[in-house]
Amino acid sequence: MAERLLKNISTRGLKKTAKKGMQYRKEAMISYAILFIGYAVLQIGAMTGIVGRNLQGQFVPICVYVSLAISLNLVVGISGELSLGHAGFMAVGAFTGIIVMRVLEQYITIVPVRLIIALLVAAFVASIAGFIIGIPILSLRGDYLAIVTLAFGEIVRNFMNVLHFALDDKGHLKFAFNHTIEGITNEQRIITGAIGATGVTKTATFTYAMLLTAFTLFIVLNLKNSKQGRAIMAIRDNRIAGESIGLDVKKYKLIAFVVSAALAGMAGCMFGQNYSTLAPVKFNFNTSVLILVFVVLGGIGNIWGGMIAAALLTILPEAFRQFADYRMLTYAIVLILVMICTYNPAIKARIQNIWKKINPLKRKKDEGKKDKKKKSGKEAE
Amino acid sequence: MKNTFKKFAVIAMACMMVFALAACGGGGDSSSDSEGAGAGTLHIGGVGPLTGPAALYGTAVKNGAELAVKEINEANPDGVQIAWDMQDDEHDAEKSVNAYNKLVDDGMQVLVGTVTSAPCTAVAAEAYANRTFVLTPSASAAAVVEGNDNVYQLCFQDPQQGQIAADYIAENYPDAVVGAIYNNADNYSSGIYDAFKAEYETKGKTIAATEAFSDDANADFSAQLNSMKNAGVDFVFLPIYYTPASNIMKQASDMGYTPKYFGCDGFDGILALEGFDTSLAEGALLLTPFSADADDEATQAFVSAYQEAYGEKPIQFAADAYDCVYAVYNAFLETGLSTDASMEEICEALISQFNGGFSVKGLTASGEMKWESTGEVDKAPKIYLIQDGKYVEQ
């Protein structure tokens, strides 16, 4: 039985390998193109003044959410596990980044250098959090994993609620748990429990955020197309078969989980650098679900789909401001409609049909294919 | 079956296209450009939570400000008119900055907002860099005004409330055994509590028992109340909002524990709470700048106009916003600027007004309100006793 299964998989795998290489290149090309075109259009729009202040203010959050969608896709799409605690890693990264930036302010004056160090430290701390939470829970599956990650997100938020950090006169970092630090001025406080971080110097810019998104994309796409990535996907598709050919299931799941956590930490760090204040309440369950919605709406495992969904769903609530009281209702209706249109097979087929009719490129291709078929048919005759 | 899908697809596509078109058209137009005759229109923007868990406060601010704008516009048909636009921020710093940017895009000149503290801190930094004058009706955290010369508060700061409460209790109830229950996940509550504790201890007294709770666990208070009871506390300080406070009162009375309560401005609204037995709040003290039951003429006029327009009693936030609009309007008139002035010019002029001893009367102060150059308000506190289901000023 097992033999037959393996044989089946391996032959199928061989046939698909060539095709998969193509698919990967296509996916990478589309993803990078979206990123580049998006950056160019928005940057030109901002320079010429076509894009208003409202949209300009969302540039960094859009990049951050796109990064988060890409990194969550690694767990949900590529590794096939449901994670509801992504905002937790984001929170770890955000607060780590804020502390690192504040502490290094006195030593390093060049902002990009400081930001890169902060991003790396944020990634490191978030990956440790991912590792610690990953070890016990990755032996869980499906719903249980979802519940534990949900709890993790809430634990992180509640932990942040009682965390205090400050920088005293001598430039020493002070830390307190569950009580306020005494003997310092308000300006010296970095993180004050539930109030969160205040007085953060904004250092995030659209370009930095876009570079981070490109980096995230680079890591995830390359991981997906590596030996490890194929192992991760093999385990997703059939855990028993993967185990039977000697893949270390826990190890590969942990790789996906930790890399995803580190990337989320970096995105969180960038997010924290974009606002003068940041409260732990921002990283609640709703934010985790929002990121998951980006991934699901873009198509689980479809990286550029998730990117587009993240950007659109960040802009839409703002674009709907003119609906005033009906804003959130409109947003919800659009969400539901998009879900139905992309997931109902009958409607999906219909839209694809219409798309084929409208799209001249595709039509030509199809016609070309038909011609080829005819030709090859004739030759055979 | 196929037909239904077809119909549905058509409807869905149509809906999407309408939304897409509508979204496209959103950029340039500003709805309130109808310039009145005479001295022009001052564009005041507001930001606050109109949806989400804090929507009650944002809506009250919106209503209160709208009432003031309507009054001003009707009273001065030939004078400076006000155009008011309020945007939703869902009590979220990120959305709040977006809302502020949207208002700037639409030509706002002065900001009355934002309603809640954390979002206001984020917006204040943006407004500081961008030079917008900000007068917040209700964002009471100290961080809102710190380092921002353009931001002023109409409400008491959280630490101010804690100090006032500590002074009042130490003076009027010297023999009380005081305990406190506060929300340590909320900066409003912990801000008041920290200042209260510090001030009360400098008076040479100690708090007998302190218990905390968080937003996630605000239904069952038996543990906190037992701790109060065991410590012999007969005076409980509750720097929290009225919903958890009502639960505390109910559960305390169920277990036969009847201490005296002292609340801050978040307490206001407890008597209007549906399903709450108001006799439980009898004898409680609260520190609030506004009471809908006060019998002075201005308050009565405001309350009846508000009830007529919105069908409910105004809460403190509505009165704060009402005062904010009048304060900004009067200060603007005193600067002598024309309504064509840019946001930056108005900002600098109003800053020098507010720093230069500008004072205004309002619903939320027993006398005149003035401002410190730090942005804090300087007004006399009001302490009320709940008696026979009404507020009685002490």
Structure write-up:
- The complex is a heterodimer of chains A (381) and B (394).
- Chain A has 15 helices and 4 strands.
- Chain A is mainly α.
- In chain A, β1 and β2 (173-177) form a beta hairpin.
- In chain A, α1 runs antiparallel to α7, α3 (59-78) packs antiparallel against α10 and α4 packs across α10 (249-272).
- Chain A starts with a helix and ends with a helix.
- The mean pLDDT of chain A is 86.
- Mean pLDDT of chain B is 85; it is low at 12-37.
- Chain B starts with a helix and ends with a strand.
- Chain B is α/β, with parallel strands linked by helices and 394 residues long.
- Chain B has 2 domains: 41-156 and 298-378, Response regulator (Rossmann fold); 159-288, Response regulator (Rossmann fold, 3-Layer(aba) Sandwich), CATH 3.40.50.
- Chain B is built from 11 helices and 15 strands.
- The relative contact order of chain B is 0.12.
- Chains A and B meet through α2, α6, α12, α13 and α14 of A and α1, α3, α4 and α6 of B.
What order do the helices and strands come in, and which of them pair?
The complex is a heterodimer of chains A (381) and B (394).
Chain A: H1 2-48, H2 53-56, H3 59-78, H4 86-104, H5 111-137, H6 142-161, E1 163-167, E2 173-177, E3 189-192, E4 196-197, H7 206-224, H8 227-237, H9 239-244, H10 249-272, H11 285-298, H12 303-319, H13 327-343, H14 345-358, H15 360-380
Antiparallel strand pairs in A: 1-2, 1-3, 3-4
Chain B: H1 2-24, E1 41-48, H2 55-75, E2 81-88, H3 93-105, E3 110-113, H4 117-130, E4 133-136, E5 151-153, H5 158-172, E6 178-183, H6 187-202, E7 209-213, H7 222-230, E8 235-238, H8 242-254, E9 260-263, E10 285-287, H9 297-310, H10 316-335, H11 343-355, E11 360-361, E12 368-371, E13 377-378, E14 383-387, E15 390-393
Parallel strand pairs in B: 1-2, 1-3, 3-4, 4-5, 6-7, 6-8, 8-9, 9-10
Antiparallel strand pairs in B: 10-14, 11-12, 12-13, 14-15
